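Query structure, 297 C-alpha cells:
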C-alpha cells in the first residue's frame, strides 16, 4: 500500500492550482520555495506520477497534477469537515447548539453536515453527543439537546421528526464465507436461524433487524457490539455475518473486502430522521441546521 501523502503537500498542490504556480502557492502557504519543491518531489515519488511541469517561467501542474489536485481538494475538504465535527465533541465551551446523533449518523454523515453548517454559521458553538438511537430520543425528550438524529424505524410519541437521509441494511460476509458463494438467494428463515454479529439493543440498526425477524425464534448473537465500525471489523475478521448499513460498508463492498448477500423477500430500507421536542416548527440554530441538511439531500 502506498504511504499516505503529507497533508501540507496536498494543500500545496491545491495552491498551485489556485494561484497558477509553485512560487505563489508557496508564498500563500508560508513555505520557502526550496522546501515546497522538496515536498512536491516527495509527493510525486509517493504517487508515481509527474504532477508539476518545471520551466523557466515557473512550475505549473501537469494534466495528471490537475486531476490529483482535484482529488486533493476533496480530501482536504473532508478533513476540514471532520475537524469541525471533532471540535463539536469537546465540552470545554458553552454551546449554543447541542446536537445528539446515533452512531451510524455520527460516523458517516455528521462530519459533512456540521462542516457545511459551520461554513455558513461559523459563530455558532456546537456540542455533539453520540449515543444509540433510543438514547438520542431519550436525550431529546429530556431536553438534554436541541435536536437529535436517529436511524430507528420509528420515533417516540411526543417528538416531531423530518427525514434527512436514507440508507439500507444489507447482509454482509467476507469473500470466503459460504454465503458469498451461494448460487441462490438466502432465505429469511436461514438468516433468522444464523447467529450474527449485531449492534447493541437500542441501536437503530438492531431495532430494524429485530423487527424484520420478529416472527422467528433466533439464536443468541455471536457478538453484540456498540458501533457499526466494530461490527464491520468483526465481519472482516471472519467472526460471522452481520446486517449493516450501506453507509458503513460501501467502501468494503466496492473493493471486494466484503460481499452483500441477497435475502429473498427481505428488503431493509431506512429513513434517517431529525427529531426534536415541541413545538412543531424547529427554530433557531437547530432549525437552521436541519434546513441546511434537507436542502442538500
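Result returned for the query:
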Amino acid at each position: 500500500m502506498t504511504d499516505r501523502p503529507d497533508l501540507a503537500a496536498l494543500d500545496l498542490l491545491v495552491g498551485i492550482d489556485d494561484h497558477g504556480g509553485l512560487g505563489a502557492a508557496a508564498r500563500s502557504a508560508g513555505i520557502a520555495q526550496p522546501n515546497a519543491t522538496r515536498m512536491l518531489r516527495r509527493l510525486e515519488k509517493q504517487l508515481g506520477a509527474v504532477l508539476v511541469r518545471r520551466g523557466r517561467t515557473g512550475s505549473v501542474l501537469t494534466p495528471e497534477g490537475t486531476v490529483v489536485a482535484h482529488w486533493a481538494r476533496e480530501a482536504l475538504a473532508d478533513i476540514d469537515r471532520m475537524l469541525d465535527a471533532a471540535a463539536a465533541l469537546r465540552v470545554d465551551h458553552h454551546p449554543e447548539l447541542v446536537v445528539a446523533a446515533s452512531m451510524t449518523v455520527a460516523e458517516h454523515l455528521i462530519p459533512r453536515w456540521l462542516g457545511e453548517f459551520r461554513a455558513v454559521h461559523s459563530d455558532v458553538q456546537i456540542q455533539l453527543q453520540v449515543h444509540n438511537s433510543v438514547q438520542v430520543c431519550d436525550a431529546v425528550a429530556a431536553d438534554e439537546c436541541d435536536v437529535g438524529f436517529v436511524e430507528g424505524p420509528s420515533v417516540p410519541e411526543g417528538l416531531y421528526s423530518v427525514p434527512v437521509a436514507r440508507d439500507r441494511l444489507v447482509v454482509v460476509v467476507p469473500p470466503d464465507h459460504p454465503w458469498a458463494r451461494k448460487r441462490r438467494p438466502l432465505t429469511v428463515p436461514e438468516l433468522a436461524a444464523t447467529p450474527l454479529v449485531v449492534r447493541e439493543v437500542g441501536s437503530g440498526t438492531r431495532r430494524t433487524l429485530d423487527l424484520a425477524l420478529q416472527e422467528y425464534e433466533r439464536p443468541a448473537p455471536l457478538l453484540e457490539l456498540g458501533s457499526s465500525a466494530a461490527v464491520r471489523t468483526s465481519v472482516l475478521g471472519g467472526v460471522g455475518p452481520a446486517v449493516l448499513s450501506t453507509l458503513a460498508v460501501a467502501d468494503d463492498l466496492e473493493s471486494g473486502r466484503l460481499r452483500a448477500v441477497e435475502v429473498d423477500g427481505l428488503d431493509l430500507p431506512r429513513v434517517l430522521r431529525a427529531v426534536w421536542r415541541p413545538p412543531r416548527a424547529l427554530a433557531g440554530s437547530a432549525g437552521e441546521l436541519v434546513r441546511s441538511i434537507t436542502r442538500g439531500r
